[in-house]
Amino acid sequence: MPAFNLTPTDSLPHIYQQGLLPQRNQKGLFYQSTSCRSNLHEYSLSSENRRILKKTDQFHYERTPLNSFTLTAENLKTIHHWLSLLKWDFPTSSVKTVFNNHIFNELYIWQQNDLIIGYAICLVTPAMSHIAYVFYDPSYQRLNLPIRMVLQVIVDSYHQGLDYCYLGQFSPDTGFYKRNMPGFEVFDNGDWVKYTKNN
Fold first, then answer.
1. Which fold has domain 37-184?
2. Which of 6, 9, 51, 160 is deepest in the core (most CB within 10 A)?
3. pLDDT tens readout for residues 58-100
4. Any idea where the domains of the chain sit in the sequence?
């Protein structure tokens, strides 16, 4: 995948509009992949979206500026444990980078009965958002927690009046569930298009 270094004068909405995604280990480095987003001008919750929201209403979240959150040794250990169970290749050094030294500026902290069960790291600007990384307790995977984490950022972005919510990579192997999100589009051949099986 080609990578690009962006200058400080490049606006983030313009960068994302080009189908670029931020590299997790280096602030300011972007790469081209099969990016996807929710076009909030086409926002409409499907019956499946509403079912997820209803089925996961036992989960609660708090939004906080990322720079006000302290990544302690204890919660870093918890995230590392979740990643091990999920068998994700995400080194501890990368976790520290996306929490402490990147372009991201907002954090969703997900809980059930005062127990923290997930984190979603996001970028939010006046025009767009990006749910960049989710870390969650895999025992809640079958209860649709990861899907709810993504859907909630889309819902909140719509109510904030944003234009787009970027969702990261998309392929049959990576984030295929995202195709059911409101206003779903993929970056294909230099343009944003509605997803079809033929994309």
1. Aminopeptidase (3.40.630)
2. 6
3. 999 999 999 999 999 999 999 999 999 999 999 999 999 999 9
4. 37-184
